[in-house]
């Protein structure tokens, strides 16, 4: 914005607060699948929506699939809940000033701790009139079940995402036997007994929770509780302060003090172990070799996605690899988009993977 220009207020002209909905859930659980349905739902009702998408990698592949007319801010290369957390309020402010949406959807990285994002949104609420309505957590049913058997930090993060939800979507029911589904529902209910729970395939839910006038009481309660904590002098920012922070009714996890207390410039143990590798392809690759590479990925690479051109078909594809399953979708990318692959996992051997990728290039 040029120097002499008056600054526009980040408040809608009708004075109403901009509704904000947060889509949470672990990597590959079905957040983007949900986001696209919500965008279509708004468009059908002439509701103006803007999106903030956050990716751990350096490229936003999910954005390729979102309606090109929808204003979108991309926050790449880090997680909004920590490394680029302070940027979130700025992005929100700019998006609202420039596009004056009725509603903003935030899709966080699957590795994000929602409580930290709720805090960041609440901080943004000090600058502009926004109203956090929903924290919808998409749960990858089969993955939650598998991780519940072996524990670990990823399971802990999934638990936090469930605890903080105002709406729970237990997805990928098609990959669960009936008795497994019961087990998953029990697991989720033990963690969060309050939020409405829907079992889904491809994140298909009743989208009324995203109605501009609707939304959950709980989200506001979680947010205002976070606001109270962050504005109550040093208590919230001092990890040593007793009772430094209390969650709202939707979020009651025991180690919250730890997670939140370290929100200001400290490490975030819950997902500090997640790492990414972004690889740009120099040219087209053989489709069989590429599929084989995905099939052979180590167990601790649990998510990969990207755009590839195959020598043998001469077409470009978006690929999705989530928990050992791969999907290819033929695409015609808009604008100047490189062939790229992003791998996300825990402590995997980047050099070994880069060597395998190099073998693909003729
Ligand atoms: N079998 C099955 N696959 C699904 C379902 N929902 C989504 N998927 C697939 O799972 C993969 C990941 O879905 P996304 O919607 O991109 O997941 P996400 O949570 O946005 O992923 P990240 O952005 O990496 O965190 C895609 O290949 C989807 O087609 C489902 O209900 N069942």
From TrEMBL:
It comes from the Bacteria. Residues 252-269 have a biased composition (Basic and acidic residues). SMART domains: CobW_C (SM00833). Transmembrane segments: none annotated. GO terms for molecular function: hydrolase activity; nucleotide binding. InterPro entries: CobW-likC_sf, CobW-like_C, CobW/HypB/UreG_nucleotide-bd, P-loop_NTPase, Zinc-reg_GTPase_activator. It catalyses: GTP + H2O = GDP + phosphate + H(+). Residues 233-269 are annotated as: Disordered. Keywords: Chaperone, Hydrolase, Nucleotide-binding. It holds the Pfam family cobW. GO terms for cellular component: cytoplasm. The keyword Nucleus does not apply. The keyword rRNA-binding does not apply. Residues 274-361 form the CobW C-terminal domain. Belongs to the SIMIBI class G3E GTPase family. ZNG1 subfamily. This is GTP-binding protein. It comes from Paenibacillus rhizovicinus.
């Amino acid at each position: 914005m040029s120097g002499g220009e008056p600054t526009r207020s980040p408040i809608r002209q009708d004075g109403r607060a901009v509704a904000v909905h947060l889509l949470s859930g672990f990597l590959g659980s079905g957040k983007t699948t949900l986001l696209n349905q919500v965008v279509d739902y708004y468009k059908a009702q002439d509701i103006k929506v803007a999106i903030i998408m956050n990716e751990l990698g350096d490229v936003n592949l999910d954005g390729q699939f979102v309606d090109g007319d929808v204003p979108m801010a991309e926050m790449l290369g880090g997680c909004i809940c920590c490394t680029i957390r302070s940027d979130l309020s700025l992005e929100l402010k700019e998006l609202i000033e420039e596009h004056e949406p009725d509603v903003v959807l935030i899709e966080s990285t699957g590795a994000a701790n929602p409580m930290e994002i709720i805090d960041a949104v609440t901080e943004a609420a000090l600058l502009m009139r926004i109203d956090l309505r929903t924290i919808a957590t998409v749960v990858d049913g089969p993955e939650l079940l598998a991780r519940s058997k072996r524990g670990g930090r990823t399971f802990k993060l999934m638990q936090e995402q469930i605890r903080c939800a105002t709406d729970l979507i237990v997805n990928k029911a098609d990959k669960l036997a009936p008795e497994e589904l019961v087990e998953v529902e029990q697991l989720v209910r033990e963690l969060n007994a309050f939020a409405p729970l829907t079992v889904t395939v491809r994140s298909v839910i009743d989208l009324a929770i995203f109605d501009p006038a609707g939304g959950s009481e709980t989200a506001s309660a979680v947010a205002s509780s976070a606001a109270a904590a962050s504005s109550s002098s040093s208590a919230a920012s001092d990890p040593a302060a007793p009772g430094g922070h209390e969650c709202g009714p939707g979020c009651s996890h025991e180690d919250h003090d730890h997670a939140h207390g370290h929100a200001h410039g400290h490490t975030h143990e819950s997902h500090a172990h997640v790492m990414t590798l972004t690889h740009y392809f120099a040219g087209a690759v053989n489709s069989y070799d590429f599929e084989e590479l995905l099939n052979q990925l180590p167990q601790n690479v649990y998510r990969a996605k990207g755009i590839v051109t195959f020598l043998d078909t001469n077409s470009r594809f978006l690929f999705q690899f989530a928990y050992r399953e791969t999907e290819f979708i033929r695409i015609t990318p808009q604008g100047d988009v490189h062939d790229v692959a992003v791998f996300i996992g825990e402590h995997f051997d980047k050099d070994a993977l880069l060597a395998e990728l190099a073998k693909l290039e003729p």
